[in-house]
Specification:
2 domains, alpha+beta, globular, Fumarylacetoacetate hydrolase, domain 2, 292 residues, 12-stranded mixed beta sheet, 5-stranded mixed beta sheet, 19 strands
């Protein structure tokens, strides 16, 4: 099945996606994390509910206000340098062990809202990524069992402030500016995609021009291996998210560099999942608005 979390009557509500349309479920329906915890029985119950929805229940996904998948968010674990060509274009050695860092909940924003270009830098870069949604808890998960712990997948734009990323050997500053990591809009359950979401086209477009174009088959650490490796040092829990790294073509590796600027529109598209679209806006003085 395909889901999105939206805002209706000022509340977060779960919606079922069919093609370009969404049916927003009632306030008595589960949120996404509850649905994940219900397991297959929950999915079956939602499927039965959808079967009897009238045509009027469906509306256009593109015009529906969207929210982040989870509020508050669980752990957001990110892999870096997971595509060989991307590691090489950035001047990094291809790692024997994946580069792993964390994002904070305040760095995320939903599809349709503006990625914020910070006042302190002009080096805002795009990164198209596959995002894994963890569905079952586990520690020391074997690679053979890892995909049983995956609920589904969505799109992610790991927008990075490159000069801050390079200030230290730790990437935390450049990866955690407020409202730079866009997620969504559609969460696709794992059964609808190839095992590990492998072999899917992944692309990024900036103002309509394709700037990244690759396949998830090019990941050096595939999803099952990533889940297993991460679970060696932390317990993975339902609702945790794992960003699987970006392919080649990022802006900082170009001559001259290509940065995202206010007024731009950036899209991440993953075959079988959908399109994550966000504008870019300049940071305004004052307090950051609360995430939805």
């Amino acid at each position: 099945m395909r889901f999105a979390v939206c805002i209706e009557d000022g509340e977060r509500r779960l919606g079922v996606v069919r093609g370009t349309d969404i049916a927003v479920l009632g306030s008595s329906s589960p949120d996404l994390l509850e649905l994940i915890n219900w397991g297959k029985d929950g999915l079956a119950a939602i499927a039965k509910q959808v079967e009897v929805l009238p045509p009027a229940a469906w509306q256009k996904l593109a015009t529906t206000p969207l929210a982040l998948p989870f509020e508050p968010s669980g752990k957001i674990v990110c892999l870096g340098l997971n595509y060989r060509a991307h590691a090489q274009e950035g001047g990094y050695a291809v790692p024997d062990y994946p580069a792993i860092f964390l994002r904070t909940a305040t760095s995320l924003l939903p599809a349709g809202e503006a990625i914020i270009a910070p006042r302190v830098s002009e080096k805002l870069d795009f990164e198209a990524e596959l995002m894994v949604i963890v569905g079952r808890a586990g520690r020391y998960i074997s690679e053979a069992d890892a995909l049983d712990h995956v609920f589904g997948y969505t799109c992610f734009n790991d927008a990075s402030i490159r000069d801050y990323q390079r200030k230290t050997h730790q990437w935390t500053p450049g990866k955690n500016f407020d409202r730079t990591g866009a997620v969504g809009p559609v969460i696709v359950t794992a059964d609808e995609l190839p095992a590990g979401a492998s072999g899917l086209g992944i692309a990024c477009r900036l103002n309509g021009e394709t700037v990244q174009n690759a396949s998830t088959a090019d990941m050096m650490v595939p999803v099952a291996m990533a889940v297993s490796i991460i679970s060696e040092f932390m317990t993975l829990e339902p609702g945790d998210m794992i960003a699987m790294g970006t392919p080649q073509g990022v802006g900082h590796a170009r001559t001259p560099p290509l940065w995202m600027r206010p007024g731009d529109v950036v899209e991440v598209e993953i075959e079988g999942i959908g399109i994550l679209r966000n504008g870019i806006a300049a940071e305004e003085p004052g307090t950051r608005p609360a995430a939805k």
